[in-house]
Each structure stands twice: as C-alpha cells, then as structure tokens.
# Entry
Amino acid sequence: MDCIFCKITSGQIPTNFVAVSEHAVAFNDISPRQPLHVLVVPKKHFTDVSELTKAAPEILADLMALAVQVAGDKSEGSFRLSFNTGEKAGQSVFHAHAHVTSVEPR
Ligand code: 5GP
Ligand code: ZN
# Structure
C-alpha cells in the first residue's frame, strides 16, 4: 500500500517527531494552517478515525493522550483537536490522524 503516513511512522521517510507514544507519533504538518499545526498519527494503518475507533479503541486512547500532551507542551492552553473524516470533510490522507492546531504556540 502506498501510504505517506505509513512511510513516515515506519521511518521510511525520515521525520523529526515532536513526540512519540506506544502507538502513535506526532510531527509538524508540512503545510501549517495555524502557528502550531501538529499531526498525531497511529503507527498502525487505519483509514480514518471511525475505523480506528471501532477497530482499536486502545490505540485511539493512546493517540488522544499524545495529542493532549503535545497541545499542553506546545500551546498556551488554547488549541483545536480535529479529525477530518471523508473526502467531503477535507480528508486528503487516508491514514487516520488528528490535527492539533493553535493560534497561540508556546
Ligand atoms: P487531512 O487533509 O487528511 O485532514 O490532513 C492531511 C494533512 O497532512 C494536511 O494538513 C497536509 O498538509 C499534511 N501532509 C500531507 N503530506 C505530508 C507529508 O508528507 N508530511 C507532513 N509532515 N505532512 C503532510
Ligand atoms: Zn498508512
């Protein structure tokens, strides 16, 4: 499968991770839409957050904990946590991921 986020999480594409947990990695978005824009991505491939939630709630919980950790470390406390799900909602990479964005980076 030709998945850009599988290549990033597996190390095939070298990437500076902002933070790592047991099941997820966090790295800066290549095209940030806010002063802070970090993607939090499960190491294992799931198409979107719906599939992730149904198939592996423990991985979702781990990913959410990492996202909240990154938001706490990298913002002043105000942040948005979002999952685009489906093409019409703006999803362009079909490997589940959370966006952590903030206008107030630390
Ligand atoms: P989506 O549109 O699927 O919700 O979010 C995908 C995000 O991945 C976009 O914000 C896009 O800028 C980011 N992105 C796409 N390809 C790469 C890449 O190769 N490296 C990084 N760091 N971000 C990427
Ligand atoms: Zn993938």
